[in-house]
Design a protein that fits this description.
Length: 156
């Protein structure tokens, strides 16, 4: 056991908590297979819609990954519909690493891309509204504009 110079109490080093080093970067074509594997549990839990490899290749062009030890631990993408509207999609973070700011970093990367592309509005469809409210999203836009939905597909 390590003691302080006075010999009294153990040094604080025993209570050190190590957080993983997370790197958020633009997704690359070679990330698609890892992203596809990573999102499987989120799709199975019905948190994300299933994606084909072809869809993921397209989404990765405006997507971002969070990497820890060369492994994908988070993903998000900005689907750009027009100069006016884009959607932040498929945000997911490894459950063991949630609460460390990875989701916010991925969200910020998508919003920075929207700003760089001069996109007027970014929307998100989510069941995690509190998270997105904390990132600056709101239920209405100035002028009280709201998105309304009608589901056309049947649930299995």
């Amino acid at each position: 056991m390590q003691t302080s110079p006075s010999g009294a109490e153990p040094a604080a080093a025993a209570a050190v908590s190590v957080q993983p080093s997370v790197h958020v970067r633009a997704a690359r074509p070679e990330d698609v297979d890892a992203i596809k594997t990573f999102i499987v549990p989120f799709v199975e839990a019905k948190k994300l819609l299933p994606r084909t490899t072809r869809e993921l290749k397209k989404l990765a062009q405006t997507g971002f990954v969070a990497i820890v030890d060369e492994k994908v631990v988070g993903f998000a993408t900005l689907e750009i519909y027009s100069k006016k509207l884009a959607e932040l999609r498929s945000l997911c973070v490894d459950p063991a690493l949630q609460g460390l700011g990875i989701g916010k970093a991925l969200t910020r990367a998508c919003l920075d891309l929207a700003k760089d592309r001069h996109i007027f509005e970014v929307m998100v469809i989510t069941s995690a509204d509190q998270f997105f409210l904390s990132c600056g999203f709101d239920f209405t836009l100035p002028g009280e504009k709201k998105a309304l939905f009608l589901q056309m597909r049947e649930e299995p």
